[in-house]
Write a structure and sequence with these properties.
Strand order of the largest sheet: 6-3-4-7-5-10-11-12-13-16
InterPro entries: PAE/NOTUM
Structural class: alpha/beta
Shape: globular
Keywords: Cell wall, Cell wall biogenesis/degradation, Hydrolase, Secreted, Signal
EC number: 3.1.1.-
Largest sheet: 10 strands, mixed
Distance between the termini: 29 Å
Mean pLDDT: 90
Family: Belongs to the pectinacetylesterase family.
Enzyme class: hydrolase
Helix content: 25-40%
Strand content: 15-25%
């Protein structure tokens, strides 16, 4: 791997204008940000031309029997997934990747979400490209390319963990049932014979991979090697730039509206309130299955939507800094450095376990396992001269202990920083 010039992902101006004005969000800072980073509603392009081959396109499969168990999207439509079959030595190995896409914490936001692919399978793409950890090419995904690779679509708004409904608004909050229906479906497709399995997820899906990690492990015989990977899912219960708790307020709404507490660890609920137990920093100690945390220390989504959302920065003092970290003042950088310190402190106990893995790079990025450039490419982000894909593979296959933590910004010149214009 070579250290190349930082890649910049550029947000088109019209989309960013919509983001700032709240057109996308219907007044929700978090929903607008998820639209930009995850929904595909705003186009993002790389300034570096790609020479990589075209990714495999994988069709959508709806879970036909899901409705009989109440496992439906927000609008009552069937949930779905994309499966690309494994081959060769990977024919009996399974990777299940949970899609991200933020959350909905109010009736209004959830009703709006029903009109998107994150609330209804009516709006899901008929096929999607499999890149990064889902790629079927050894040169792009060295350890998992020939596994059975699945992307489970996200259409419940509570990280696959709610279980309630709102009849008046015609909303179904059935994330937990969707999770169970999907696992049952995949087992019937051959996953019950898995010799190796990895549950992964990005963003809200990364949080879900933590929530469901032990359930996933318990779905298999003891003889099956099972581990979990959370990418950009370590959301912090942090103070925003106004001194408030933007993300905690959002999570509280999600937990209460969708009755998430039914599916959180009892051992955590015996100590803390349900909202606190929805935060990974309080949840990971209750996960018994080997877990890998992949996170940018300055996670772009958290900077934009949790630390400095418009509601906490009504005069836009943080707009330039959020658009490009190079524009941040010294005091703003210090605020972000304090956020990184909190992240590392919250991971201290987690990292002390021999079975856990860490890759915390000091980048302004988000969801690094899904993007080919950040997962495994000629100029991938590196820690200890190792790209993310190799670090995850080393940990999964027990080739070496992986506890990689970057020095503070701006020391890392291998980052693919997200820059918005």
């Amino acid at each position: 791997m070579t250290n190349m010039t930082t890649m910049k992902l550029v947000l088109v101006a019209v989309g960013f204008a919509c983001l700032l004005s709240g057109v996308i969000s219907f007044g929700s800072d978090t929903l607008s940000m998820l639209s930009f980073l995850e929904n595909g509603a705003v186009s993002v392009s790389s300034t570096k031309p790609s020479s990589l081959p075209q990714p495999v396109m994988v069709g959508l499969t709806l879970i036909e029997g899901a409705a009989s168990t109440g496992a439906v999207c927000l609008d009552g439509t069937l949930p779905g997934y994309h499966l690309d079959r494994g081959f060769g030595s990977g024919a009996n190995s399974w990777l299940v990747h949970l899609e991200g896409g933020g959350w909905c914490n109010t009736i209004r936001n959830c009703v709006y979400r029903k009109t998107s692919r994150h609330g209804s399978s009516n709006y899901m793409e008929s096929e999607i490209p499999f890149t990064g950890i889902l790629s079927n090419k050894a040169e792009e995904n060295p350890d998992f390319f020939n596994w059975n690779r699945v992307k489970l679509r996200y259409c419940d708004g509570a990280s696959f963990s709610g279980d309630s409904q709102d009849e008046s608004a015609q909303l179904q909050f059935r994330g937990q049932k969707i999770w169970l229906a999907a696992i049952e479906e995949l087992m019937s497709k051959g996953m019950q014979n898995a010799e190796q399995a990895l549950l992964s997820g990005c963003s809200a899906g990364g949080l879900a991979s933590i929530i469901h990690c032990d359930e996933f492990r318990n779905s298999f015989p003891e003889s099956t090697k099972v581990k979990c990977l959370s990418d950009a899912g370590f959301f912090l219960d942090a103070t925003d730039v106004s001194g408030g708790r933007t993300l905690r307020n959002l999570f509280e709404g999600v937990v209460q509206l969708q009755e998430v507490q039914k599916n959180l660890p009892t051992s955590c609920l015996n100590k803390l309130d349900p909202t606190s137990c929805f935060f990974p920093q309080n949840m990971v100690e209750h996960v018994e299955t080997p877990l890998f945390i992949l996170n940018a220390a300055y996670d772009s989504w958290q900077v934009q939507a949790s630390l400095a959302p418009p509601s906490a920065d009504p005069f836009g003092y943080w707009n330039d800094c959020k658009s490009n970290h190079a524009n941040c003042s010294s005091s703003q950088i210090q605020f972000l450095q304090d956020f990184r310190v909190q992240l590392l402190n919250d991971l201290k106990d987690f990292s002390s376990s021999s079975q856990t893995g860490l890759f915390i790079n000091s980048c302004f990025s988000h969801c690094q396992s899904e993007r080919q450039g950040t997962w495994f490419s000629d100029d991938s982000p590196l820690l200890r001269n190792t790209p993310i894909a190799v670090a995850v593979g080393d940990w999964y296959f027990d080739r070496k202990d992986v506890k990689a933590i970057d020095c503070a910004y701006p020391c890392d010149n291998t980052c693919h920083h997200l820059v918005f214009k």
